[in-house]
Amino acid sequence: MAILAAFALTACVAGLDLASDLRDGATLGHVLAEGTIAVIGFLGAALVARQMIAVSRLARLASAEATSLAGELARTAADAERWRGEARDLMRGLSQAIDEQFERWQLSPAEKEVGLLLLKGLSHKEVAAIRSVTEATTRQQARALYRKAGLTGRHDLAAFFLEDLMLPSQPTANDE
Known about the structure:
Elements: H1 2-24, H2 28-104, H3 109-119, H4 124-131, H5 135-149, H6 154-162
Helix pairs in contact: 1-2, 3-5, 4-5
């Protein structure tokens, strides 16, 4: 804003001085020099004003985009909270069923913890970091879990608990 005012003031002062000099009979070189200053001042003011309008337009667009994104984020957060609320009882039941199966397999507390973290999709390295043990220890406990459960690896472990949850929905009378 100050730059725009400076260019505009320079152009006005140069223009007024030029008009005064023309009345007083100034030389052609002097008139050309002050005329150039006045033109540069007016052009500078016009360019700064144009730039300020563009920046203002971009700021309005960014503000609108930020408002839109904030609304989308709020809707997504509300959807996630609704999902968690709807699935809470199901998850408790699944968690209890997993615990009961781990008991049937006679897993140690460490093997149970490794199993849960693997079911959550963590790598051996991530499980080791969370549990503050070496990756080799985590792998050994995972192998013990698979052996006791009669499974071949983490994919079988996930499939054991999740396979029946992923069945296609049964058609209803409206679908037929």
